[in-house]
Write a structure and sequence with these properties.
Layout (H helix, E strand, L loop, with lengths): L14 H17 L9 H4 L15 E12 L6 E12 L5 E5 L4 E2 L5 E3 L3 E2 L3 E5 L4 E5 L7 E12 L7 E9 L2 E9 L20 E9 L3 E4 L3 E10 L5 E9 L12 E4 L2 E6 L5 E6 L8 H18 L7 E7 L6 E2 L4 E5 L12 H17 L7 E2 L5 H19 L5 H17 L23 H18 L1 H15 L3 E2 L1 H12 L4 H8 L5 E6 L7 E8 L17 E2 L13 E2 L3 E5 L18 E4 L1 H12 L6 H17 L4 H9 L7 H20 L5 H19 L9 H17 L4 H16 L9 H13 L5 H11 L5 H11 L5 H9 L14 H8 L3 H13 L1 H8 L4 H12 L5 H13 L6 H23 L4 H11 L1
Parallel strand pairs: 1-12, 18-19, 19-21, 22-23, 24-29
Antiparallel strand pairs: 1-2, 2-9, 3-8, 4-9, 5-6, 5-9, 7-8, 10-11, 11-16, 12-15, 13-16, 14-15, 17-18, 20-21, 24-25, 25-28, 26-27
Helix pairs in contact: 3-4, 4-5, 5-6, 5-7, 6-7, 6-12, 6-14, 7-8, 8-9, 12-13, 12-14, 13-28, 14-16, 15-16, 15-28, 16-18, 17-18, 18-20, 19-20, 20-22, 21-22, 21-23, 22-23, 22-25, 23-25, 25-27, 26-27
The protein binds 2-acetamido-2-deoxy-beta-D-glucopyranose (NAG) (6 copies) and zinc ion.
One 2-acetamido-2-deoxy-beta-D-glucopyranose binds next to helix 3.
Length: about 950
Amino acid sequence: MMLTVRTRHGRPKRRRVGALLLLALAARRTAFAPAPVSMEGAEVELEGPADGRELLPGGVEPLRYELELALDPERSSAFTGELWVSLNVTNETFNITFNARSLRFDPQSLAFFGPSAVAPVEVTENVEAERVTLRFEEALPLGHAWLHMTYSGEMGKEDMAGLYTSRYQDREGWKTLALTQFEAVDARRMLPCWDEPSKKAVFALTVVIPAALTAVSNMPAAAEMTFFKTRRWKKRQQFTKITFLDTPRMSSYLLALAVGRFDSIQAQTSNGTLIRILTVPEQAEFGRFALDVAVRALAYYEEYFGVAYPLPKLDMLAAPDFAAGAMENWGLVIYREVDLLCNVSTVGIARKVRIATVVTHELSHMWFGNLVTMEWWEQLWLNEGFANWMQTHAVDVLFPEWHIWEQYVVEEQSRALRLDALRSSHPVEVPISHAKEVDEVFDAISYCKGGSVVRMVNGLLGEDLFRQGLALYMQRFAYTNTGSTDLWACWEQVSGLKLQKMMSTWTRQQGFPVLLVNASDARAGHLSLRQQWFLADGSEQPGDETKLWHVPLLPGPASREASPSILETQEMLWQAPNGAAWVKFNFGQLAPYRVLYDSPRLRTLLAGAVGSGQLSAVDRIGLLLDAMAFAKQGQLPIAELLRLVAAFKGEQSTHAWQALSEVLTTLHRAVAVAQGDFRAVDVAVGNGLLQGALHEVGFRAKDGEEDLVRHKRALVVGLATRYMPTDKELVKEARQRFESWLKDPLQQDALPDDLKTSIFKVVLINAETDAPYRALRRLAKLSDTPQAVRLSIYSALGAARRKDLRRKTLDMALGGRYGVRLQDIMYPVQGVSSADPSGARLAWRWFIQRRGAITARLQGANVRLLGVVIQCAAGALPEKAHANAVQAFFEQHPVPGLERSVAQVVEAIRTEAKFVTRLEQGVEDTELKDVLQRFEN
Ligand SMILES: *[C@@H]1O[C@H](CO)[C@@H](O)[C@H](O)[C@H]1NC(C)=O
Ligand SMILES: *[C@@H]1O[C@H](CO)[C@@H](O)[C@H](O)[C@H]1NC(C)=O
Ligand SMILES: *[C@@H]1O[C@H](CO)[C@@H](O)[C@H](O)[C@H]1NC(C)=O
Ligand SMILES: *[C@@H]1O[C@H](CO)[C@@H](O)[C@H](O)[C@H]1NC(C)=O
Ligand SMILES: *[C@@H]1O[C@H](CO)[C@@H](O)[C@H](O)[C@H]1NC(C)=O
Ligand SMILES: *[C@@H]1O[C@H](CO)[C@@H](O)[C@H](O)[C@H]1NC(C)=O
Ligand SMILES: [Zn+2]
């Protein structure tokens, strides 16, 4: 029997398969090894480039997947698939190897259609490597061919990975929907595929589902057909077969599907692209805000990148269960409900900013990531670092009133610097040999440091050249894959600046420098500038000094330099501009490094700039966060840090308050565990800083108030909750608001979303009975409680002081009657561990005792979720003995795939514990006493 494939796109007619089956059967007799099979294959599989990447063997390129999938999520978790892959055999080979995980193949269906049809003589599944190899008796003919297979699989229930089911409650009761999450390596759980970002192909998807359900995918439906099928007991059921249009050439991790009952709202961009919000029934109205952001952002990006959005539509779907915040599947972005839906007239500001940011983040991926994709996971930062920058840039354009770049420095840049100051950090471009290792790299380095590095380039090039370089990059590499050097090359081409070498010091090298500014050892009128690897704990090891970065000095307030001065060597003498009272380096906090001034210069800066308001908020924030890091490291006396904090008395900027909140939260935690009497510090901060601020912001929002004013109120009340939770006035206010809110929880006036977590905490801390605790827990269970309120409750419950209540709160992470969804597992844990030192101890003990149950619940989910739980349970107690205990525990019970995260948690605890020791040693410091007094004046 000979079969010929004539047209490139037309696959062989199905009737021909029957003939082929005979062949397959014949082959089977000789050597069919039923799956799952031997693990020995693992060693042989190591092929690919010499850099140790475990890539699929070459020789065969997928061009097009034609997949027909049948599923009925409301009745069964099983699904079946029939797949035709159009391939190009480019090198002589006997084998075809692709990825698949937990799929059961129909052995008789496996066949290769080249010039003739052949069945494999052997099928080997390597379960560990998630690969299947088909071996053929003769070398496969070069050129175009089709591969055919039918298979079945199971949708995971709580996995939130691959094709999985998610449950929600509506008026009629519990319902089930099905959806996908593939990045990084879970497409292979729905279909056999070449699951690597550079194996781009066209996906032509067809689904067969019950007619009562709807299906959405990357592309709109091209055809729909309804038919009846007789089920068991002669019950006829109506089904729909939906064929979606071909996707563009894209990576497998971007494929997406959702099947269920959805409500939607929609709008069109000025360019005519249809954008829809899809939700479970009766929730779509809550997507108005996100829809509006998406319409404006998509239009903005088309103009910015100079490339039209390439697909006919964009769906944004809110999923009841979702492991990440959102996923940028091309044309079908899927979000956690809380990151997409809100009532815009009542939503808390932090949440509103978050929704806008998540939407702009995902939509930027439609170009950066989807149209142009990283060539391998080592370059993940190209996707995520860029989106981290772009999300902020776009929100700044759409909502200038939010001053989002200030928030960027407080949240994103500082997260980057915090993590990257650890010895257990990693370079932005981190070698990934096996794709599974990439899970751990979806971290603050890829996102926040990556974004901060992009921001630095933006600062050096200026908006125009920066954008031109990107537009060039989009045009040059559309539908292909790239590495960092491709991006640098485009920026070099438009600007004439040399970037390659400079940027590699930031992306190929772990860590970042501190710039030491010193006048005492320099000529008059000069400053000596020195760079040094910044390590959070101030430790030094031989060889540390060899690290060098190309550090843009960015001195201010002088105007923009013609060409940026860059420190490439260890040190230099820098001529200070004449007549300047003060100078601040890294002006505008454009680059991810810290600056330490000698103490006369720091004082001049404080006097000349902070107090009198000559420094912009972003630079005040930079000084404060740097000072905190230096105090932790031991380079700055704690008295100096407090002197700086005191200078923020009367601060107006919301984001400076956000930075203060970071600093004061760390300080408070240190004071709480330190041996000795440090109440004076708490009292000084409470009376000297917070009382006044609280009085100024009040509890009640004024009509027409700006978003940032509301946000500042939330921050100040949050700090007050920490520093003075038993303050009479605060308790009275909180109780009143809480009581009137409890009477009508959907009514917002008494208790705006912004303040809920804080007010709940104050009420719980001061409660005489467990009534408020029970009331809150019950509310969290009700289906009409909005998700954002539910999260506020989960976060607050840990504040209740009784140990039995705290244990109950922790156990909510495990499921059960009051249990949280798996996606929310970290909230109750964090609520308890961050409450106070005894909460932190309890959370860690709970983790040890319940480890079996915790890991069992997280079994099928992405390992990152467990990483977050560990971080919450272990990371909140800054004591050396605790760091040792955590380290010892994970040495005994290692968690594969989280080795680096655990090391980071341990190192961060050790660093903070050193800070506590320093605080203890400084208790008799007269200067400290002096500073504390200044707070209150
Ligand atoms: C396939 O053949 C090309 C050209 O003959 C060669 O450059 C390439 O390395 C081969 N690839 C593999 C995976 O053997
Ligand atoms: C198949 O691969 C060969 C060799 O790389 C190439 O010349 C040819 O254009 C490819 N064919 C298709 C259909 O992609
Ligand atoms: C084909 O795969 C089998 C099993 O993985 C392996 O033993 C064999 O060496 C491979 N043959 C070729 C030609 O790649
Ligand atoms: C979309 O709008 C941009 C400018 O905003 C324009 O350059 C582009 O041609 C438009 N694309 C389509 C498909 O209309
Ligand atoms: C949003 O909240 C306002 C004020 O509480 C309310 O009037 C409105 O109905 C809510 N919107 C939706 C869609 O529920
Ligand atoms: C500044 O230089 C002096 C003299 O070399 C040195 O003692 C001091 O530690 C330096 N200060 C900083 C912040 O580098
Ligand atoms: Zn992203």
